Amino acid sequence: MDFTISAQKINQAVQRAKNILLIAHQRPDADALGSLMSLAEWLGNSGKNCVSFCRDLPSVTENLAFLFNLDLLVSDPALLATQQFDAVIVLDSGDLSYAGVSDILPKLSPVPVVINIDHHATNTNFGDVNLIDSQAVSTTEILYRFFQINKIRISPAMATGLLAGIIFDTSNFTNHNTTHGSLEVASRLLLAGAKLPQINDFILKNKTLGSLRLWGRILLRLNYEPEFGIASTVIVKQDIQDQLSGREVTEGVANFLNNLSGVKAVLILYQEEPGLIKGSFRTNDDLIDVAKLAKILGGGGHRKAAGFKIKGELVELEAGWKIV
Questions:
Q1: How far apart are CA 230 and CA 67, in angstroms?
Q2: Most buried of 55, 144, 178, 245, CB within 10 angstroms?
Q3: What pLDDT was estimated at residue 58?
Q4: Ranges of the chain with pLDDT below 70
């Protein structure tokens, strides 16, 4: 369906609805929370009853808390069963499992309209209405266009959330996924009142002495395969203490290594829990699509950044680290 038509249909569904459920994916990042914030702000100003849900609330890192009042974020699925919703909007999720609600939505009664807004190339189009653009750098960029199409005023708070998602997903406009369009949207969000210094302080200036020491241990395990141009390293559970989430460390190291000269792709393997390994791919090579690699392994994502999960244990042997 045409993007403009889908955007208009979503607005119509929202206007008809009285009670709306917003869903951010598990282990939310700045794009997910920025999307959530901008929609919640708009719906609240429009007089809609809105509930914001994230199944993995404890994983929200302190530096992202400025994007959303965490006291207003519901994480207990049982609380949703006691309410009725006319519409459900799932944000920044390729499928309902990633959003953490594949077991929740079928139980909602009466059955709500499911709206799917996302920018992942591997999105399964699970919504009754889907607003998908895999060329957009972030879901917040898609929401900016949604607001523009429907002539919805973007407040300074909404603009801050939207810009935060763009800056995070482009690594402050340094990733190869940065486009002319994303830069133009960012400039318009600044004109709408987005607080760039606040975004920089909380999203970009987030490294501590402890985190850099941790990075040092992880980088000591760095391995390079010149035949394929792939750099890889591993993160074990003992590395991650209370100071940082595994997701934050994994993504930070992956993005850092993706800037290495001569490296075509980066793979980070993280022992997320006993028997479960999370993998993160990054690339700046125009000939490589890591989303396809991740999909083979049961994951998904973008052409330049993707992830997956597999069963196994990371074990250090004399020849190096292996999955067993």
A1: 35
A2: 144
A3: 58
A4: 57-62, 206-207, 241-247
Domain 3-204 has CATH 1.10.238.10: no
Domains of the chain, residue spans: 3-204, 209-323
pLDDT in tens, 241-255: 644 466 677 777 887
**What is the C-alpha separation between 157 and 256, in angstroms, rounded?**
30
| Alpha carbon 161 to its chain's center | 13
**Fold matches, 3-204 and 209-323:** no
Query: Strand 300-301 and strand 276-283: pairing?
Result: unpaired
pTM above the 0.85 mark?
no
Output the six-digit token pair for 324.
Answer: 């067993």
What string of H, E and C letters represents the secondary structure of 137-153?
CCHHHHHHHHHHHCCCC
Measured between alpha carbons, how far is 119 from 130 in angstroms, rounded to an integer?
11
pLDDT digits (tens, 9 = 90+) for 107-122: 999 999 999 999 998 8
Domain 209-323 in CATH 3.10.310.30: yes
